[in-house]
Write a structure and sequence with these properties.
The complex is a heterodimer of chains A (about 210) and B (about 220). Chain A has about 210 residues and is mainly α. Helices cover about 85% and strands about 0% of the residues of chain A. In chain A, helix 3 packs across helix 5. The longest helix of chain A is centred in the N-terminal third of the chain and has 35 residues. Classes of the chains: A mainly alpha (about 210), B mainly alpha (about 220).
Chain lengths: ~210, ~220
């Protein structure tokens, strides 16, 4: 199994398009995942009864195979990018929700009491005290969700999308390994780069962690 | 939409759909066979590796990074790659499923081993236990709940992903998904997806119950 380098140099435009489309699908999913799981996590953190229900429900969603989620969405959103993004978003929920709840749990009660004693309103406490302190744990979840989404986008190749995953179908149908190797390599590269960027982002967002370290 | 679901209902419940070599019962058995065998092979590789890393404390870097590598590796790409390299056999299916399951098993086994109280290990050594005795009689039993969690996670992921067997022309429940997609038969596609999801959910709940029953006397 040899790599045909001339194929790669002849297809740089296609590879760029697919990589951009791949990354776009994964990042959109993580964005919507955060948008949904942040408020849900705040609710799960405050209301004990809903906590078990929400975490349990997201766990069940996670056991549903990704191909099944994409397929089950077909009657609703068809063979479109929307189906890909919804499917991936569902997958990010379990990680993001659990980590955000755990992050909020990890904020010391005394810190919250201090904020209350200083007359800070609950919403302000949440935004300026609790969420920033929960950030390291939330970011750990964002990193896992991002890497996972980048890898899962290729499953959507079965429903005609899939970014770099299209290279797998292409290579498979033509019995030609080069696109497949390139697709796997680019997916891994995207995951590593995205993860490194998120580590850097966390470093920028949590200046108080730096002084201690 | 309603018609689709009623068709799906009759597809899932019709007797003819369940029998024969393309019947649900046969496909279900194939799916379970692929999943269980792959998880078994992955356990044979991942469990000793995780125990060794946890016991010796060497290679922790490997154990941690293996997890993110496993998450990042696209299974669809891997199965096609191994298929093109090895030709028409079950090898690509098992290689991909095992590659998917090993990281989850290693990292959870390692996590279970590191969670064992160092004082307990010291006490065992103080009583004159040898390294392998500490491992087998102290560390392993204490790490067992987390090891089980890892196995459960691995099995669920493998069951969900075993649909790829059909992509490289073998059986299992993925057959309905890929045949249905090729024939534009949405009912069949949905039927396959529902069955895979049901198997995954039922296995996960069953194993969770078993885990709770086995470790019912433990507080933590």
């Amino acid at each position: 199994m040899t790599i045909d380098w001339s194929w790669i140099s002849g297809h740089t435009d296609d590879l760029t398009t697919l990589t951009v489309s791949h990354l776009q699908a994964a990042l959109t999913a993580v964005f919507f995942g955060l948008l949904i799981s942040l408020p849900l996590a705040v609710v799960a953190h405050r209301v004990r009864f809903l906590r078990g229900f929400l975490l349990g429900a997201s766990n069940v969603l996670f056991t549903i195979p990704s191909i099944a989620i994409f397929v089950l969405l077909l009657p609703i959103s068809g063979l479109t990018r929307t189906t890909t993004v919804i499917g991936l978003t569902v997958y990010t929920l379990v990680v993001l929700l659990r980590n955000t709840v755990e992050g909020l749990d990890s904020v010391p009660a005394k810190t919250k009491e201090a904020a209350k004693a200083m007359g800070t309103r609950p919403l302000r406490t949440l935004l300026t005290v609790e969420l920033p302190l929960a950030l390291p744990v939330i970011m750990a979840g964002v990193r896992i969700a991002t890497v996972m989404s980048i890898s899962l986008v290729s499953v959507a190749t079965y429903i005609g999308d899939g970014g770099l995953g299209q290279l797998f179908t292409d290579g498979f149908q033509r019995n030609y390994p080069t696109p497949v190797i390139v697709g796997v390599a680019l997916t891994l590269l995207l995951a590593v780069v995205a993860d490194a960027l998120l580590v850097a982002l966390q470093y920028v967002l949590t200046p108080w962690k730096r002084r201690r370290a | 939409m309603y018609e689709l679901f009623s068709n799906l209902g009759s597809w899932l419940t019709s007797g003819t759909q369940w029998s024969g070599s393309d019947g649900i019962a046969h496909r279900l058995a194939e799916h379970l066979q692929y999943s269980l065998l792959a998880t078994l092979i992955a356990t044979a590789i991942g469990l000793p590796l995780g125990l060794l890393i946890g016991h010796t404390g060497r290679g922790a870097f490997l154990a941690i990074n293996l997890a993110s590598f496993g998450r990042a590796l696209p299974t669809v790409g891997l199965v096609v790659l191994v298929f093109l390299a090895s030709g028409l056999s079950m090898t690509p299916v098992y290689v991909s499923l095992v590659a998917l399951a090993v990281p989850a098993i290693v990292t959870n086994t390692y996590a279970g081993m590191t969670a064992v109280d160092p004082d307990v290990k010291d006490a065992a050594r103080g009583q004159g236990m040898r390294g392998h005795q500490v491992l087998l009689h102290v560390e392993l039993p204490l790490a067992l709940p987390l090891i089980m969690t890892g196995l459960r996670l691995a099995l669920i992921q493998v069951v969900a992903t075993a649909t790829i067997a059909a992509y490289v022309s073998f059986g299992g429940l993925g057959r309905y998904v890929f045949d249905g997609l090729a024939q534009r038969d949405l009912v069949q596609v949905l039927g396959g997806a529902v069955l895979v999801a049901a198997v995954a959910v039922v296995l996960d709940l069953g194993l969770a119950g078993l885990q709770r029953f086995l470790f019912r006397h433990r507080t933590a």
